[in-house]
Amino acid sequence: MQPDQNLDNVRLDIEAVGFTLDDDLQASVLDSLTKLQRFYKGDVITAEVYLKLEPNQRNNEKHVGIKYGVPGNDVYADDSGDDWYGLLNNVVAKLQRQLEKRFGNHTNANRGNIDEIDPADLA
Fold first, then answer.
1. First to last CA, the chain
2. Are 36 and 8 in contact (CB under 8 A)?
3. Average pLDDT for the chain
4. Is there a contact between 35 and 1 (Cβ–Cβ < 8 Å)?
5. DSSP assignment of 54-120, as one string?
6. What are φ and ψ of residue 87, in 5° steps?
7. For residue 61, with 0-12 CB atoms within 10 Å meaning exposed, 13-18 middle and 19 or more buried, which class applies?
């Protein structure tokens, strides 16, 4: 898959195993990665998304894993369940916690401090 414009030249690879990726799920993956990129302002090199449908498991279990290539060791999170969209949200939340734990707020320098925001500027 080609890098998306919203992901600022991050090399993106979405792999669907056991099913065909539809446009809605692909858009949801891109939205999730964009949300994660808003949270983490450092350099992101790659984003690898693995979506797997395991029909032989209980109730067609779904598996989502995201490997996020950042400086140092990459971060990875995964989850299994029965709802693609809920799994994506869970995995992104896990990645956010990992990035916050590892990098803290110093990589999020572009995020405004609530005390520095003038309410008049928001109008």
1. 39
2. no
3. 80
4. no
5. ETTSTTSEEEEEEEEE-SSSPEEEEEEES-HHHHHHHHHHHHHHHHHHHHGGGGGTTSPPGGG--HH
6. -65, -40
7. middle
Task: Annotate 4-29 with three-state secondary structure.
Answer: CHHHCCCEEEEEEECCCCCHHHHHHH
The token pair that represents 73 in the structure block: 């060791």
Which structural domains are found in the chain, ordered by start? Answer: 5-106 (3.30.160.100)
Question: What does DSSP assign to residue 122?
Answer: H
Note if the pTM is more than 0.70. Answer: yes
